[in-house]
Amino acid sequence: MNKFTVIQLSDIQLQPLPSGAEPPIPPQLQAIFDDVLAHQLSPDLVVISGDLFQNGRPEDYRWLRAYLHQQEQRLQAPIRVILGDADNREAFNVGFLEHEAAYYAYKQIYQNMDFYFLDTKWRTRRTAGWLEREQLDWLNKNLHLAPRRRAFLFLHHPLDAPALREMRYTLLQNNHELLAILHGHNIGGIFAGHLNFAANYLVDNTLPVTVAGGASVYVDCQDSHQHEVHAATSYNVITIQRGVASVTTRLLSFDPQVLTTIAVGNTGFAKHRPRLIRER
C-alpha cells in the first residue's frame, strides 16, 4: 500500500464575516495551508475536525465552502469537514450543505481504506459530544460491509481516557456504545479535536486515539477548574502506510500571554442522556 498523508486541523473557530464588507482571509487557517504547501507535504486528504465558526450564519458557511474549494485547488487534495459543538447545524445545513440533515456523517474510500467522518455535536449540551443511535447503526452497518478493510474515524469529541478524567464533562458521552460497535473490526485509529491541546492515548488497550491541537488557540487544562487560553496555531500530519498511522504535530505559533480563563464547575460526565425524540 502506498503512503497516504492526511492533514488534520481542528477548532479553527472563525468569527462571523462582517456584513457588507470584503471577507477577510482567516490568518491561522491560511497560515496552515501555506505551511503545507511550503513544506511540500503533498496531502492526499485534509480534514477539519469541527468548530468551524463561532455563531456562524448561513452566509458564513457558504463563504467557507467556496474558500475551501479554492484551497483544494492549491493543495490538490480534497478537504473534508465535520461539525463541532460551537457550530450552528441549521446554518451549516443551509449554507454549506444546501439541504437539511439530522447529522452530517459520511464515508469515503481511499486506497482500499475506509474513512468515516462522524457528527458528535449534541444540540442540548453545548460542549459535550454525543453519537445518535441512528448514526451508530449506520456506522455498524458500514463496518460489517467491509470487515477486513482498514478503517479510520474522524470526529470532533475525543473518547474518555484516564488522563482526561477531569475533562469528562466535555468528551464524547456515549463512549461505550461506540466502542461496542468498533469491537472486532479493523480500526487503524480515531482522530479528534475539541480539546485545543494535543493528546495521544489508547482506548481498550488497542484503539489509538489522537487529538489534534487547536488551529487558533491552545488551552492549558492543568488546573481542572481554571483553563487558561493562549493564542496558538498547530496542525497534525498523519502518515498511513501498510495500514499503520503515525502522527507528527506542527506548531506554527504560540503566545505565552494568557488571553482569557475558562471557569469549569463539574468535571464529570453529563447526568442526562439526550431525549429519544431527535431534535432538528
From TrEMBL:
Pfam families hit by this protein: Metallophos (PF00149)
GO molecular function, one term: metal ion binding
InterPro entries for this protein: Calcineurin-like_PHP, CNP_phosphodiesterase-III, Metallo-depent_PP-like
Keywords assigned: Hydrolase, Iron, Metal-binding
Family annotation (SUPFAM superfamilies): Metallo-dependent phosphatases (SSF56300)
Gene3D superfamilies named among the record's database cross-references: 3.60.21.10
Domain of life: Bacteria
Signal peptide interval: none
Domain named Calcineurin-like phosphoesterase: residues: 5-194
PANTHER family listed in its UniProt record: CYCLIC NUCLEOTIDE PHOSPHODIESTERASE CBUA0032-RELATED, PHOSPHOHYDROLASE
UniProt similarity note: Belongs to the cyclic nucleotide phosphodiesterase class-III family.
Listed name of the protein: Metallophosphoesterase
